[in-house]
Design brief:
Length: 141
């Protein structure tokens, strides 16, 4: 898959056949926080569903992290907190943005530090479109 740090709009992936057509736009990750087993990062991207049917992101994995979870950020008594979600639904003909303060792909237990300019490969599994691989560049939020 082609990838360019200077032109994220060209760094798109597409997958699926027939009704389902999912594209991933502008994937990026934040630098790692903390160190060792508790080190974390998060991956953000836009999921574009160009198909005629709702699709759902069910699962993500990456070789840089022990655990990868789909998370959302919520406010709890004025405190921001994160919690896992089972899936991220992407209605037909719409974009769902994973971004700081919202939905994200959580990387837990990083196997290496992530610094600005590094690349992280993440495999996404959609209910309809199946698996697709994206390369997220690490940058400052
Ligand atoms: Cu999280």
């Amino acid at each position: 898959m082609a990838s360019s740090p200077t032109a994220p709009e060209q760094d798109e992936s597409s997958s699926g056949t027939g009704e389902a057509l999912i594209r991933i736009l502008d994937p990026w990750a934040r630098p790692s926080a903390q160190a060792g087993e508790m080190s974390t990062s998060a991956v953000y991207l836009v999921i574009r569903n160009q198909g005629q049917e709702t699709d759902r992101l069910l699962h993500a994995e990456s070789d840089v992290a022990e655990t990868v979870e789909l998370h959302r950020t919520t406010m709890d008594g004025g405190m921001m907190k994160m919690e896992p979600v089972q899936a991220i639904e992407v209605p037909a003909g719409s974009d769902v943005e994973l971004k700081p303060g919202g939905l994200h792909i959580m990387l837990i237990g990083l196997k290496r530090d992530l610094e600005v300019g590094d690349r992280v490969t993440v495999t996404l599994r959609f209910e309809r479109a199946g698996e697709m691989e994206v390369v997220a560049e690490v940058r400052q939020p």
